[in-house]
Amino acid sequence: MNAFLITIGDEILIGQVVNTNAAYIGEKLSELGVDVIGSSVLPDDENAIRNEFERAFNNSDLVLVTGGLGPTHDDVTRKVIVDFFDTELVMNQDVLNDIKKLFESRGRQLTKINEEQALVPKIAVPIRNSRGTAPGIWIEKENKIFIAMPGVPYEMHLMMESFVIPKLKDLMGDSKKIVLRKNLLTTGLPESHLYERLGDLKELLGEVKMAFLPNQFGVRLRITVEDDNEESAKSRIEAIEQKIRTKIGKYIYGKDDETLESVVAKLLTDRGLTLAVAESCTGGYVAHRLTNISGSSKFLERGVVAYSNAAKVELLKVDEDVISKYGAVSIEVARQMAEGVKSISGTDIGLSVTGIMGPTGATPDKPVGLVYIGICDDTICTAKEFRFGDDRHLNKDRASQAALDMIRRNLLGIPYDD
């Protein structure tokens, strides 16, 4: 089975909203073994939508549309569907009851325009929506499937999980191919260097596919296996993972949806260790990421933003003479910041970050993107130099990632030799 995705909305075309719907649906369909052969984004224009419906329906087994099902004047998708399939709208009592319950639960008065959202194409099966007022639409015609869902992501996600995916699984039956994916999350090494260290990819992977997907935090390696048998697919993907780990294992911090902060949190919690963080250039971002983790109070004792030199001296007991001699952005100051925050907090580990985020503040010897990260525990007190780019916000992301990776490596006994 192949599929074509259509996203409708002026807000996406003009860049006000990022098209996460297509990415989500594409991933879910691919997991089912459905080949996504194309995707388009359309304005809220009836002619453009109808023309794309015709093209997609003629050239694919499955058409999946999001957007334009709301109650306002610019929501024209349902009208075009009725015209395209030469049908009519009928009131669906189940959908109307859903809408009434939703309004009652929110203590709001039901309006006529919302009642009209219970009108669905006569030939369609409605996809119930417990998170909003617009139902989805499922139409089967000419041995093809046409699906329309709201553009609101959390409404669409529920429809996919509760209705669309299970129904597609039933229809595909045993004929569907098994597609398994695993994402290995790396940090600390650029895409090109990872590529070099992995060596001959054809020899490494065989018929297995792998994509390099870089972002500001590192590179995600997406491994994809297609097979007729699920156990065989699992075995093949695990074998490839182990081969990859033998080559670049120390750069792999997690899998799939894990974050580096969640990995660090688990390591600290499992070991019963506490952490204090002293930040200058990242302005509390490392602590922010750690406190995104539920239960962070178990391991994070405090975070100190010591932005000025005076704050470093007063709060962290950094030696003024060291700052005068080496500068606030130096390996010596980073080491003393880590030692100082550990000392004043009484934690097992102290972590520090100091650097030049840019675009100002650089000198010939200390360019934008220069960052020093220090770590101090009961056995070592050290710091490492990093050089990132010239974008302030990306530098904060990268510095926070490098700082969290310093903790991960420290806890796992992985040397920071590059």
Automatic annotation (TrEMBL):
This is CinA-like protein. It comes from the Bacteria. Pfam families: CinA, CinA_KH, MoCF_biosynth. The lineage of its organism: Bacteria, Pseudomonadati, Ignavibacteriota, Ignavibacteria, Ignavibacteriales. Belongs to the CinA family. InterPro entries: CinA, CinA-like_C, CinA_C, CinA_KH, Competence-induced_CinA, MoaB/Mog-like_dom_sf, MoaB/Mog_dom. CDD domains: cinA. Residues 4-170 form the MoaB/Mog domain. Signal peptide: none annotated. It comes from Melioribacter roseus (strain DSM 23840 / JCM 17771 / VKM B-2668 / P3M-2). HAMAP family: CinA_B.
